[in-house]
Each structure stands twice: as structure tokens, then as C-alpha cells.
Design brief:
This protein is an all-beta fold. Helix content is 0%, strand content 56%. The two termini are 20 Å apart.
């Protein structure tokens, strides 16, 4: 075993056929340990900032766009009004990524699928 690698959760390679730029996706276990409602600097509205643990990484991410489908698309294509990631649970979740700029939470199946995009603001190694 390589030194320093044991603290990283395993990542499963997955594909999303309908994703724009369908490349290699990685799915893994993450822990959402904090959720904070913040106000934009210009006071134009509020947003949710999440604190997420992944192995020895502490990730700060902002709730982004939520997409929903009622017709069974693998990658939902209907944007819904901003809802502060209300369907994203605290605790252990599976998230997908292609790099460290965005994380994706997929929920539901068949005709009721949902994709929540999390915009990564910071990744710290602990």
C-alpha cells in the first residue's frame, strides 16, 4: 500500500451517456457535515454553502442548479427554481465528479430523476 493513499475513499468509474462532454466520471462516498445559509455580498439573495468530507479532503461547495426529469432522462434537462439544495441530505451521500470544480448528486430513478450541481469553492487537505 502506498503511503498517504489509505485515507482516500475508493472511487468507482461510471459513465453518463447523455452528459455533455461525456468523459470519465468518478463516484464515491462523501459526508456532508455542514450546511450554512449565507447572503451574497451585494445583498441580492441567499445561497447555501456546504461543508463536505472526502477522505482527508475538506470541501466547501455552493449549491448550484437543480435539474429534474419526469420522462426518465439519465441526465435531467429541466432546470428548477433555486431551492437551496433542499433534497440533498446531510450525512453520507454518493456524489459524482469529473474533476474538482463540481460535484453532482443524483437522486430518484426511472421517470423521476434529479441532479443537483454543487460548485466547489475550496478543497483543503487535512
Amino acid at each position: 500500500m502506498l503511503a498517504g493513499c489509505s485515507r482516500q475513499p475508493s472511487e468507482e468509474r461510471v459513465t453518463h451517456q447523455n452528459a455533455i462532454g461525456s468523459g470519465q466520471w468518478l463516484r464515491s462516498d462523501y459526508d456532508i457535515v455542514g450546511r450554512e445559509l449565507k447572503e451574497f455580498d451585494d445583498h441580492s439573495g441567499k445561497f447555501v454553502l456546504l461543508t463536505i468530507k472526502h477522505g482527508n479532503k475538506l470541501i466547501t461547495a455552493e449549491c448550484g442548479v437543480t435539474w429534474r426529469s419526469t420522462i426518465g432522462e439519465e441526465f435531467p434537462s429541466t432546470q428548477v427554481p433555486y431551492d437551496n439544495c433542499s433534497d440533498l441530505p446531510m450525512g453520507s451521500v454518493k456524489l459524482d465528479r469529473t474533476d474538482w470544480s463540481e460535484l453532482y448528486y443524483f437522486a430518484g430513478k426511472d421517470k423521476n430523476t434529479e441532479d443537483i450541481v454543487l460548485n466547489v469553492k475550496r478543497v483543503e487537505i487535512r
